[in-house]
Amino acid sequence: MSEKISEDIKKLVIARLETLPADKKISIGSFGDYSKTELIASVNKGDKVGKKIIEIELEFLRALKEGIVQ
Amino acid sequence: MAVSEVKLGLKERFLKVYANLPLNLRKEIILVLDKEPITWNVVYLEVSNNTEKGSQILKKLEELKII
Amino acid sequence: MTKTYLLTRPEHDDTMHYLSNWSKGTIDAAKKAGIKVLDLNREKATKKEVEGRLKDLSPILVVLNGHGDENTVTGHQNEPIIIYGENEKLLKSKIVYAISCQSAKVLGQKSVDAGAISYNGYNDDFVFFYEPNMISKPLNDKTAQMFLEPSKIFIETLIKGNTVEEALKRAKDKLRSNINRLLVSSEADANMVRYLLWDLNHFVSRGNLNATI
Predict the structure, then answer these.
(1) Considering only CB atoms, which chain C residues are within 8 Å of B23?
(2) Of the candidates C5, C119, C185, C203, which lies 20 to 30 Å from B28 by C-alpha distance?
(3) Is A52 in Cβ contact with C101 (below 8 Å)?
(4) Residue C213 falls within a domain, yes or no?
(5) N-terminal to C-terminal alpha carbon distance within chain A
(6) What is the 3-state secondary structure (H, E, C) of A45-57?
(7) What is the 3-state secondary structure (H, E, C) of chain C?
């Protein structure tokens, strides 16, 4: 079950990353600077950066339950 | 708990989250189902019309702990 | 007695280049407030230089820009400069702000345990967006501004004599207002909300919230 959820999460995160602006880069901690394409590749690979991006996305999505408007 | 009661619970939870979502965020992708990206707005449409797809989506959203 | 402010500003990659430029403005704010500034820029942001200044010149406010992990803050070329278990006691009696990934997770609390008045930073990775075509003018980068201006506000609020708690509040209020602005702007911009929220949630303070410089 958890593997299936993990694949679902990967697909979701990649679909969401696809909507990021292409003309910007993101600096992620000590990992370095990434373009949208590089982020998507990392999520596909499941490397440390990919896992961090998934964590950021899930933290956000789950925070929406509590309400983001303050 | 009956299946219909479980589904109602999920629908209520979804609608509660959806109601408090800023308008711009409602256009964001919330799930990929059968290779189709689905936004909050599309989920709302399915759920508010009580479709089978809507039930399927709600179960997935619960699994992912999004609702 | 004149107060002293120590600031490290390595610039060896894009991230450090941005952090360095965005914290540079706090130097003027400090000078205007009559605070002596020790600006360790580029290759001066080394362990030897930082340790020397901390020991000999007793800055009350220490701002560390650098990569890091839960036990470490680094400087020029990622040389570890403050390391838990080695020299965190040099932060004794200081208010520290580390714009450095994860250091507030372990190093932060351990520094306070070793006598730091306050340690402020991030208990996970710090992330920000920027526009690559603005790399030569980072202060004109409106995208990066949303992420980096709150840090500048935090430092300047402390420089003006406010408490750590007030500085934290002003910085976080700025992050929240940036989030709210993005939520009603274009869809493309709204995509960045999740990363601003991440930084907001992971910006933490250890030690005395009522401390002032």
Answers:
(1) 184
(2) C203
(3) no
(4) no
(5) 35
(6) HCCHHHHHHHHHH
(7) CCCEEEEEECCCCHHHHHHHHHHHHHHHHHHHCCCEEEEEEHHHCCHHHHHHHHHHHCCCEEEEECCEECCEEECHHHCEEEECCCCHHHHCCCEEEEECCCCCCCHHHHHHHCCCCEEEEECCCCEEEECHHHCCCHHHCHHHHHHHHHHHHHHHHHHCCCCHHHHHHHHHHHHHHHHHHHHCCCHHHHCCHHHHHHHHHHEEEEECCCCCC
* Residue type, position A39, single letter: L
The total of structural domains in chain B comes to 1
> What per-residue confidence (pLDDT) applies to C185?
85
Q: Do C193 and B25 touch (CB under 8 A)?
A: yes
Query: Which residues does chain A have within 8 Å of residue B61's beta carbon, measured at their own beta carbons?
Result: none
Residues facing residue C128 across a β-bridge: A27
Instruction: Report if residue A38 sits inside a domain.
Output: yes
Residue C211 lies in a domain: no
Residue C162: φ, ψ to 5°: -80, 165
- pLDDT tens per residue, range A29-54: 889 999 999 999 999 999 999 999 99
**Band of residue A1 on the pLDDT scale cut at 50, 70, 90:** very low
Please report, for the domain that includes residue C81, its CATH number.
3.40.50
Whether the complex's predicted ipTM is more than 0.95 is answered with no
pLDDT, position A66:
82
Chain B hits for C187, CB-CB cut-off 8 Å, are 24, 27
B67 vs A11, A65, A67: nearest CB? A65
Q: C42 lies in which domain range?
A: 4-203
**A41 lies in which domain range?**
2-63
Q: How confident is the model at residue C72 (pLDDT cuts 50, 70, 90)?
A: very high
As for how many domains chain C has, the answer is 1
- Most A-contacting residue of B35, B57, B64 (CB-CB within 10 A), to test interface: B64
Mean of the pLDDT values across residues B5-27?
Answer: 86
